[in-house]
């Protein structure tokens, strides 16, 4: 389906957003200063909490909303004045938006008829789209006669039937239960691989974003907090927001004591000194810092001179791992994730336990 000869602009991007701002009321900026290049064929996910501006961004790409300031280019040309149906973008929403009075085949034919294709072309493209999402037996059914997952597959096929260059998806799996959602994630990913189409995908589910995407843009209050591939977002978060939004992190507050290159020494409010990496911390930044350490990176041990100390507060069995709650001396809780109960065997809640982490696993940021 990616057979159109696409040319790229000098930056190599298919779509560029340059200093895009959006305000609905002329006062509040919902999108503050968005700069984003979308490469041809990539699977880019906009990930963020509700209200962070993901849908607004997608609507501006689709042509249903106009930027208040800034510019959107496609293949180097501004598209502000190109209407939605001429942008070559297919859209899939959470609530499918299928036509209830039309059969599956008619739903798929609709965007093609709208674009003035003849009967033969419509028939062959509908056939291909139906094959693509494997709904052969369902062609003559109406949406109400399909399951949620089947309806979503029709919506997907309908967005792709006119062979768009770009597919925009806004929380397309939000209404499905967990198993079906995971299955559809896999199907969408397979389709993307097979067709090489550019996908801009919106979700608030970080697991979904990490499993499906080539790159993820983490949205926070109308800005991109960080953009990168899943591994770098998880392993090298550039700020505390991303570190806590992607995956899980314990956040411990304290103040900066000393620097040794990228490694910093922190006096934690919990009453002990610890080390971590302060890579993104500017010299002379605030001395108030937070140290972030992932539950799986904390090691439990008998108390020794290299370990810190806390009180064992609770243990929760979760099948493939244990979550252990430690109470620090300032009453903060530290969550530890471990595959076995070796370290706490024979210990009762309320007893003291040692723990430690490798400085390279802890990240230190200025307090925001
Ligand atoms: N049509 C609209 N008119 C006014 N405010 C809107 C409109 N659409 C969205 N907003 C506001 O813009 C902010 C971002 O919304 P949205 O882009 O839908 O975020 P997300 O998709 O990340 O949840 C929210 O505060 C929302 O209330
Ligand atoms: Mg939204």
Layout of helices and strands:
Layout: E1 13-22, E2 31-39, E3 43-48, H1 54-62, E4 69-74, E5 77-78, E6 89-93, H2 104-114, H3 119-132, H4 148-160, E7 166-170, H5 178-195, E8 198-203, H6 206-212, E9 215-220, E10 223-228, H7 230-235, H8 240-245, E11 250-260, E12 263-268, E13 273-277, E14 288-293, E15 299-301, E16 308-317, E17 322-327, E18 333-338, E19 352-356, E20 362-366
Parallel strand pairs: 3-8, 3-9, 6-7, 7-8
Antiparallel strand pairs: 1-2, 1-4, 4-5, 9-10, 11-12, 11-14, 12-13, 14-20, 15-19, 16-17, 16-19, 17-18
Helix pairs in contact: 2-3, 2-4
Magnesium ion binds next to helix 1.
Count of DSSP-assigned helices? 8
Order of helices and strands: EEEHEEEHHHEHEHEEHHEEEEEEEEEE
Structural class by secondary-structure content: alpha+beta
Indicate the low-confidence ranges by residue numbers: 1-9
- CATH homolog superfamily of the largest domain: P-loop containing nucleotide triphosphate hydrolases
Largest sheet descriptor = 6 strands, mixed
Average pLDDT works out at: 91
CATH class of the largest domain: Alpha Beta
Hetero ligands:
adenosine-5'-diphosphate, magnesium ion
Verbal overview:
This is Spermidine/putrescine import ATP-binding protein PotA. It is an enzyme of class 7 (translocase). The structure is a single chain. The chain has helices at 54-62, 104-114, 119-132, 148-160, 178-195, 206-212, 230-235, 240-245; strands at 13-22, 31-39, 43-48, 69-74, 77-78, 89-93, 166-170, 198-203, 215-220, 223-228, 250-260, 263-268, 273-277, 288-293, 299-301, 308-317, 322-327, 333-338, 352-356, 362-366. It has 368 residues and is α+β, with helices and mostly antiparallel strands. It has two domains: 13-240, P-loop containing nucleotide triphosphate hydrolases (Rossmann fold, 3-Layer(aba) Sandwich); 251-366, OB fold (Dihydrolipoamide Acetyltransferase, E2P) (Beta Barrel), CATH 2.40.50.140. The strands form four sheets. It has a six-stranded mixed beta sheet, with helices on both faces. Strands 13-12-11-14-20 form a five-stranded antiparallel beta sheet. Strands 15-19-16-17-18 form a five-stranded antiparallel beta sheet, with no helix packed on it. Helix 2 (104-114) crosses helix 3. Mean pLDDT is 91; it is low at 1-9. The structure holds adenosine-5'-diphosphate and magnesium ion.
């Amino acid at each position: 389906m990616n057979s159109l000869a696409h040319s790229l602009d000098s930056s190599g991007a298919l779509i560029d957003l340059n200093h895009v701002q959006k305000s609905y009321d002329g006062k509040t900026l919902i999108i503050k200063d968005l700069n984003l290049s979308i490469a041809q064929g990539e699977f880019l996910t906009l990930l963020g909490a509700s209200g962070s501006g993901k849908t607004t961004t997608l609507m501006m790409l689709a042509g249903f909303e106009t930027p208040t300031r800034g510019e959107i280019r496609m293949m180097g040309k501004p598209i502000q004045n190109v209407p939605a149906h001429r942008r070559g973008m297919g859209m899939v929403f959470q609530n499918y938006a299928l036509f209830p009075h039309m059969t599956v085949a008619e739903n798929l034919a609709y965007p093609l008829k709208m674009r003035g294709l003849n009967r033969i072309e419509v028939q062959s493209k509908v056939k291909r789209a139906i094959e693509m999402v494997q709904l052969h037996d369902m062609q003559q059914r109406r949406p109400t006669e399909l399951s949620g997952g089947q309806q979503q597959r029709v919506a997907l096929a309908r967005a792709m039937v006119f062979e768009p260059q770009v597919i925009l998806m806004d929380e397309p799996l939000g209404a499905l239960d967990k198993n079906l959602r995971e299955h559809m994630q896999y199907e969408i990913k397979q389709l993307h691989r097979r067709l090489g189409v550019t996908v801009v995908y919106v979700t608030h589910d970080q697991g979904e974003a990490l499993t499906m995407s080539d790159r993820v843009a983490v949205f926070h209050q109308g800005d991109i907090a960080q953009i990168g591939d899943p591994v770098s977002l998880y392993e090298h978060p550039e700020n505390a927001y991303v570190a806590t939004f992607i995956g899980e992190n314990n956040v411990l507050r304290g103040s900066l004591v000393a620097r040794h290159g990228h490694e910093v020494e922190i006096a934690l409010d919990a009453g002990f000194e610890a080390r971590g990496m302060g890579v993104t911390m500017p010299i002379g930044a605030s001395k108030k810092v937070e140290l972030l350490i992932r539950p799986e990176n904390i090691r439990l041990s008998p108390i020794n001179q290299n370990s810190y100390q806390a009180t064992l507060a609770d243990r929760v069995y979760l099948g493939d791992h244990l979550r252990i709650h430690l109470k620090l001396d300032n009453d903060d809780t530290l969550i530890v994730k471990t595959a076995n109960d070796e370290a706490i065997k024979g210990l009762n809640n309320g007893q003291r336990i040692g723990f430690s982490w490798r400085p390279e696993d802890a990240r230190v940021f200025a307090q925001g």
